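Final report, Chapter 2: Outcomes

The project's central promise was a pipeline that accepts a single protein chain and returns its three-dimensional structure in a standardized token representation, suitable for archiving and comparison. That pipeline is now operational. To close this chapter, we reproduce one record exactly as it appears in the project archive, with the input sequence first and the structure output second.
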Amino acid sequence: MSDNSEAVSKSAPVPRWKRLLQNLALSVFVFGLCFIGLEIVLRVAGYGNLEIYAPDEQLYWRLKPDQDCYTKVGRKPVHINSHGTRGAEFVEAKPVNTIRILSLGDSRTFGWGLTEDETYSARLGKLLQEKLGPGRHVEVINAGVNAWSYPQMLVYFRERGLKFQPDVVVLGEANLWTQFSEHNSPEFARAFMRRVWLKNFLRHFAMYHYFVEIKLEHFYQQRRAKFIPVDPKQDQLFKEQQQADPDAVFRDAMLSICQLAKTNGVQPVLLSMPIAGDWTLTNTPVPVRCKREVSKRLEVPLVDVTPDIQPEGNGLYLEADPVHFDARGNEIIGRRLFETVSPLIKP
């Protein structure tokens, strides 16, 4: 009798909810294994470990300090120091016998697809150091941040850059479709910082880098406003400013940076770098027009490298990229800056 009861109990069917839980656990386990395996394979293949940005109430986003990563294009090594700028560590207060130059700009200044030594900021520093010799130390602080606008650079220069006591500030290019400034509402700033957090979380994964930013690049470019808005066409503040004065957003920020620099004993230098084909346009691009106006009004040096870039044209840009210069292009820009900045250095 007891043997029959044992047989019945052994053959009793497993409840349906238990089977569902077992299948779910197995599916999660298999998915996790596949996820980890694919992530490892992609990391070995060179994807992932991109630069991470910290949400910031004043700047919206800035490079997270103390990180070692790689460029999204070309997988070139990147070191972000404790001040959140690309390059070697430095102390905030400028040491004695030191010439310090602060380089402001977007991804073209940061060095998209380049090593630190290949950026025009590094090239400028090397040339100045060779000229001045061992008696004086040259530091060029590369404060370029991907997709920054001129208003963001103004806030950075006022709140942080001036603390580095630069002798010269070089104002490079900016992303014109990002209209972030200190005039946006606190609600907008908070909402955007949440997007920065989400974007950073995704950027930790090699799969995001490979599938979203590489394989689905076209789709990503169309949808990136969900992470990096605002399209000026949809920004009411921008529309109103453009109706009154089309160049106001860019020109006023440039003017403010240069005026702030002069007030604090810093020599401003404007740098104009063309997008491929700009030299064929009949109308002068807005940033060039603004920089010429600021240069004339405040008597600030303007380094326009268009004539130097034009002879080699597209050959000085990264492959299939009409915006970012390659190492050779950055070398030309660095030398042109050297020719302008060098006479400004006090003996």
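Archive annotation: The domain at 53-344 is CATH 3.40.50.1110 (Rossmann fold).
This record, like all others produced under the grant, will remain available to the consortium after the project formally closes.
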